[in-house]
Each structure stands twice: as C-alpha cells, then as structure tokens.
Amino acid sequence: MERAQVVIVGGGPSGLLLGQLLARSGVDAVLLERHTPEYVLGRIRAGVLEQTTVDLVRQAGVADHMDSAGLPHDGFDLCFDGQRHRVDLHALTGRRVMVYGQTDLTRDLMHARQQAGLRTVYEAEDVALEGWDGTQPRVTYVHAGQRHEISCDFIAGCDGFHGVCRASVPTERIKLHEKVYPFGWLGLLADVPPVSHELIYVRHERGFALCSQRSRTRSRYYLQCSLQDRVENWSDDAFWAEMAARLPAASAASLVTGPSLEKSIAPLRSFVAEPMRFGRLFLAGDAAHIVPPTGAKGLNLAASDVAYLWEALDAHYRGDGSGIEHYSARALSRVWKAERFSWWMTQLMHHFPDQGSFAERMQHAELEYLIGSPAALTALAENYVGLPF
Ligand code: APR
Ligand code: PHB
Fold first, then answer.
1. How many CB atoms lie within 10 A of CB 217?
2. pTM of the entire predicted model
3. Is the pLDDT reported for residue 356 higher than 90?
4. Which residue range is the domain that position 35 belongs to?
5. What is the CATH classification number for the domain harbouring 13?
6. How many structural domains compose the chain?
7. What is the pLDDT of residue 45?
8. How many whole angstroms separate alpha carbon 314 and alpha carbon 301?
C-alpha cells in the first residue's frame, strides 16, 4: 500500500492550488484526477480574481504569468435602459480585481506541480474513499488497469460538483441547499478586442448580457438564454446580432465580431452542502458549493476554502489541531456571504420568464437606487472585490 499525508481528489483549480500550498509547507500530498490535463484545460470558466485570490496565488509561488499577463481592473459598468454607469471599485473600496482566465491559472498550477515533481495521477478511475470517519483513511483507484490503494491522514475533496467525495457522505450527515434558476448563459470566446476596456453587465428586456475578456485581443461574451436552447441552434452570427441588440447603440456599433473559439451553455445554480468536513474528509470548492456566475465568485470561493484548509492542515502538522475543527464553520461563513451576493446580483440583472410588472419595476428601482447611492454602490463594490478572509 502507498502512503501520503494528504490525498487530494480532483485536479481543478481547488485541488491544484491546495497541492501547491501544501508543498510549500512540506506536506506530502498525492493528487488524483479523473480526466487528462487537456480535458481539464478545455473547460472555459470565469476570469475575475479578487485581490485575496491574487495574493494566495503569489503565496503559492505561481504568480509570474498572472502578474505579467493579468489585467488589473479598477471598475466595471452596469448597463440598463440603454445607459452605462461605471462602478468605480477602486474609488469605493481602495481595491481592484484582476482579469485572468481560470484556464490560464489552471495551466500555471499544472506546470508548477509538474516542475516540482509532485505526485499526480491523471486518468485515475473509480476513486473510492474509505475510513474517513476513523483515524486511518484510505483512497483506492484504478490507473492503466491496475488497482492502487493509498493510506493517508486526510482526504481533500476538491472534485467539483459531480465528484465522488461529497457523494461518499451518507445523506443523513449532509444538508444540501439548492436554488436552480430558470435560464442559462450562452458563452462565446473569440479572438477579437473587447468592446470596452472593462466588463459590462447589461440588464435588458431581451435578457441579461455580459461583455468580459481574457486579454486585450481575446473576448468572452455571455447571453442569458432559455434552458431549452441548444448551442447548435446558435450560429456565431446569431450570437453577435443578439449581443448587439442588448447593448446600447454606441457600444453595439463598436462591437468587433469574429469566429468563435468556443461556445457553450451553462445552467445557473446556487448550491451549498453543509458541513464541509466529515471526520478526516474535507470538501473544498465546487464539491461543496456552486454560485451562479453573475458575481464572478466561483473561483474566488474555491480559493478561500483552500486558504482555510491549507492553514488548518499546516497547523495540524505543526501540532495544533484546532484549525481542522474550525475549517467548516470558517469556510461556510464566507461561502454564504458570497452565495447571497451572487444570488442578489443574478436576480437584479436577469429577465425571469414569469416575472410580472411589479418584479420588473422592483429591479429597475433597485438599479436606479444603486447608481444614485454611494452607500449602496459601496456595498456592491466591497462584495465584488471580495470580502476579506
Ligand atoms: N475522481 C477524480 N477526479 C474527479 C472525480 C473523481 N471521481 N470527479 C471529478 N473529478 C475532477 C474533475 O475532473 C475536475 O477536474 O475534479 C476536478 C474538479 O474541478 P472543478 O470542477 O473545476 O472544481 P474546483 O477545482 O473546485 O474549481 C472551482 O472552477 O468550476 C469552477 O466556478 C468554479 O471557478 C470555480 C472553480
Ligand atoms: C468571464 O470572464 O468569464 C466572467 C466574468 C465575470 C463574470 C462571469 C464570467 O461575472
């Protein structure tokens, strides 16, 4: 039987970042990922990093590319009634965000793990957890047709929403909270310059739209779509025409269109599993919670979980076990605040299929109040740049 101090299940951003930080603390961790590196890098996700996430990536020693290619943003635009209103994050909070794609960050982390020679198994099939409720957890898996078994002190469940770790916990020990929204986001990635140097969040009666970016030459756009929509039914031309219809005329006129590199539809969901620790099994990132992408919080919440878990495990191996006891409560306190913000921004900006005129007026009144009130704008901005951890 093999041996490791920690087995990390899942090689997305959560698992990779945790692995890097644990290596800095001298903790020996093996990472098991079900898919190939190429598959993991093929998933396009959000690209807005809070300052605390940026700081953590620097602490992990993987910040070189992010610091040279990432774009610091001091604000974004909220658009409704055909007008753009700037939210000056820096003036309101003294902080800013960094636009840097999750795919790039994942690639940097994979590269660093490989350079450091840390034990990693891609295409690990049939991962199963045992003994996590006692003192001697074990993880089994199959690789290249051979069964392996690792005995460990702790298991870090970083295996995303569909992973095996949360699913291994008996239903009576876990409470699930969920809200499914009646629409999705159709995303398009293209090598065209962004329509604006900052992000634009658009509320429109045809549906929400978002203009985002990956660099000065690569754009990421989103359209609210129906859950019945299929990506095959959206030609690039149809996408660009719909984007132009939801933008103010001046922005639509300067929209640079081009062939898509990727197009996909994602449903919107809020989800939290409580607690986030079961004996010697910890959940982190999407394995424990999902936010709708409207507030760009998914990756940042994964980062704060990982920071708390790293601190807890680091303290444990230095003789202080109290961090482990507190991990779940600490993480969930921040998770619920980000869930609230993501839900709030989602319901503020989207067109709901059965929304009556009253709900529509409420959204409008809230947006008008927001842009006229420094207090309300500051509340938005401090959540957007990220609550401290
Ligand atoms: N065994 C091994 N690996 C698994 C298993 C399994 N049974 N099940 C899932 N995985 C792997 C997936 O293949 C994936 O690479 O776990 C990884 C989980 O990665 P993510 O889904 O990216 O989750 P996480 O690392 O927590 O990242 C959170 O990513 O999904 C976005 O919005 C989210 O930005 C947030 C961030
Ligand atoms: C993205 O760039 O993909 C992105 C940015 C901001 C969001 C969501 C997604 O709120």
1. 11
2. 0.97
3. yes
4. 2-49+99-177+269-346
5. 3.50.50.60
6. 1
7. 84
8. 20
